[in-house]
Every structure is written in structure tokens, then in C-alpha cells.
Amino acid sequence: MPGDGQVPYMSTLVDRLYQRLPEIHRRMDALDGTWTLKRYLGAMLADGGLLDDTITRIAGDNPVGPATPEPWALRGDELAQWRANRVRRPSALADPVQADVAWLPWLAQLVGSTLDPAASEQEKRDTIAYATSGWRGGTRSAIADAAKTALTGSKYARVVPHMIPVSGSLNDGTIWDITIVTRTAETPDPGAVLDAVLRKGVKPAGVVLHHAAYGASWDQIEAVFPQWNPHWESLTWDQLEQAGLIYTAIPGNAVPNPSFEVDTTGWAAGANSSIGRVLGGVDGVAMCRVTATGAGSGNLVSPDIPATPGSAHFSFSVRPDLTRDVGYTLKFYNGGSYLAGSDFAQSYPATAADAWFRAGTGVAVPVPATATKMIATVTVTGMGAGELYDVDAFYARNI
Length: 399
Known about the structure:
It contains twelve helices and 18 strands. By secondary structure, the protein is an alpha+beta fold. Strand 7 (273-279) and strand 8 (286-292) form a beta hairpin. Helix 8 (140-148) crosses helix 9. The protein is elongated.
């Protein structure tokens, strides 16, 4: 107020103009503490200051408008700062972190998202930043990103299709089941994980969402890795911690050693292939990795799987490192005698790279009347030498 000795507030634009006035005017303006000139400029250029500040926020790494001519109303130090800001400052126009709240509905349109009016400001910003809905809605990455908004810490979230959590493990589900795996320590409210996915509108139609939290104790890690060796030195903590997602055999599963939790006992490398056990997979802590030793097909041969005449269900998860044709063949035996002409084969052309795919789900396998066992061969065709694919969670039962 006039006469209180306080300097009136000015926008950045008014301050720049005021500082460029002859010093005599500024001294006279401050002489009696009324700041008549400064208050006049502030009132006259209030809207101009707001516009100037907005343009400054928009002009970030990719400024709107040309870099030249440069602003004429800047002192030398201000011009240097303006130049530096053009390089360092991201534009607020498309940055959900900096953007005004009023801009958020417009930003949401750019990524195809719809903001929930009841959501908090931070959740609205997260919806845009993660782009969980809109163009990415229904994808595994979108589901994981939506779940992360309910987590803390590193916000680890992993989406596992066709599996369900049962007693601390992930078991075989249907094609409609999706499980979101998070760390117990990063999940303050387990119910909020699924709620976040539903509220953000990224759940695929018809699927059933499940949530599983895991966290390893040293006792669990020691049980899984009883002997330390140089191999463990290369592992991430996440790989070690997955010991907390303890594997439990699926009741009724006829496949021996179906999840490679300890080793690959019973399984054999087929033609042009080598096999090994590595950490990871879709259940438990490990999976089998098949590597082609030369150009051609990579093959994995199962142990003997007990079979009962009638119909059977056989499925497994597979992840090729490149888009490849995946298939499996079941051969039936009566004791040690091969039942020629009774093979069952299934193929999945152009299975996507670096993504787990559940093969065999929903397929009824006819089992010959005299069969007592079957042997499965998984084949990925068109591989090059050194190319690999991963398999895990084999499952077979009579239906």
C-alpha cells in the first residue's frame, strides 16, 4: 500500500521494463515510498506480465517461435539466463509435471486419456505422464504403469498373463486371467493396486485381474540358493528377491519338474539345441532357456508325462527373443512302444518377441485308448545360431 515502505510486487515483464528506465525515475519513485510509477506500470501491464510468464514457461527445450531475434528488453545477465533456460528448461506446454492444472484436460487428449474429475491432482498428472489409458489402454505396459501409481519406492510392477496367485505362488489360470505382481514392501495398500487399474480404464474387457505381492527373506533366498557362487554375483536384487514368490506345484499337474525351480532334471535338448536353467519366468524363481547351436529349429524334449486315455490339457509359457513360429508335438506311448500315427501337434505362427505367450491353453488333446504316457517336444523354427527362447510353467492333466 502507498506509504507503508514495502516494494510493490511486479511481474517479471514489469520488473524488466522498470529496470531499464533511467535511474533518476526509479530513485524519485522510491523517494517517498509510494512507488507511484511502479504501481502504475504493474497495473497497466498485469495481463502482459501473465502472458510473458506463460510464454517463458512454454519456451523450454523446444521453444515456441524462433530463437532470433532475442528479447530486446533484457539486461546482459537476464539475456544470458534466457539463453540458458532455452537449453535447460523443459516446456511446460506438454509437461504434465509443470503444466497448470487447467491445462491437464488438454494434455490428456494428446495421449487419448480421460481424466477422472474425482481424482487428485497428482493422479491426473500421473495418468498423463504414464498414458495408461487412451491409445495404450489394455496393454501390459499400461496395466503395470497404472498399478505403479498405488506403489512406493521403485514401484516395481510385473504383469503376468494366464496365471493366478495361489498360496504364495503363481499357478496356471485361463486365457482370461491376469496377475499383477508387486513387492510387498512397496505395496502399502494391496487393494489400491487393482483399484488404480480399474479407475484408469486400462483393464482389457472380459479379463479377471489378480494381485500377488512378494518379498524375500534371507531364509527364503538361502533355501533357493544354498550355495553362493560367481553366478549369483551377476544377479540383480529383483532376481534374488523373487525367491519370495515361492513356487508350489499345481495339484493334478502330471508334468515332472514343470517349472525348473531347482534344475532341468528330466528335460533334454533336442536336435540343434542346448538347454540351461536361468532365473526368471512366469512362476517361481526359474525357467528353462533353449539356445540354438546352429541355424534351424530349437527343440526341447520333456520327460515322460503320464497319460490316461480320453482327452488331456497341455500348456506352457514360451518367450522367443525374436518373432518366431512356435509349436509343440505330443507323441504317445504304451509303455516303451511308440503309438505311430497318434501324434498331436499345435503351432503358433509369428509368436511375438520378448513377450510371454501361453501355448496350448483351451486345446483338447485326444489321448489314444492304449496310451500310458506322452512326451512333448517344443519347437521354435527359423532360429539362428545363438538365438534363444525361454519356457516355463508346463502343465498337463486329464479333462
